[in-house]
Amino acid sequence: MTASIAFVIGTSASAEFTKVDSEAQFVSLISGKELRRPFVKLEVSPEGEISGIGAAWAVSGNWTWREGYFCRDLFWGGDALGYNCQEVQAKDNRIKFTSDKGAGDSAEFRLK
């Protein structure tokens, strides 16, 4: 689960993922939604908080939007996962986060 805490969203079933460029666009995607993938349920608040469960352990943290990236400081089961800025992409009811400003591992979530 370590690198798999990331984020993405889209517009149509046949469309490719598109990069989320602004904080306003990101907030409109996540507001009132839960980010889900197997064994993971997260809430990312417009106010900059992250909370939820990942593989039965608590997930908590904070996020900011910096220079076109979702930057988060995250804790999982009490362990610090560290600070990382991630590229966000979206498609339909899905959001994808790619660590290291788009150069690292990705995690895709359903928005419910």
Q: What's the total count of β strands?
A: 9
Low-pLDDT segments: 1-5, 7-13
Question: Helical residue percent?
Answer: 10-25%
Please outline the major beta sheet: 8 strands, antiparallel, barrel
Strand content: over 45%
Query: What is the count of helical runs?
Result: 2
List the strand order in the largest sheet.
2-3-4-5-6-7-8-9
- Please trace the helix and strand order, writing H or E for each element: EHEEEEEEEHE
Q: Alpha-carbon distance between the termini?
A: 20 Å
User: Which term fits the overall shape?
Assistant: globular
* Class per helix and strand makeup: mainly beta
Structure at a glance:
This protein is mainly beta and 112 residues long. Helix content is 11%, strand content 52%.
Explain the overall architecture.
By secondary structure, this protein is mainly beta. Helices cover 11% and strands 52% of the residues. It has two helices and nine strands, in the order βαβββββββαβ. The protein has helices spanning 23-30, 99-102; strands at 18-19, 35-37, 40-44, 49-54, 57-66, 69-76, 79-91, 94-98, 106-111. It is globular and about 35 Å long. The model is unreliable at 1-5 and 7-13 (pLDDT under 50).
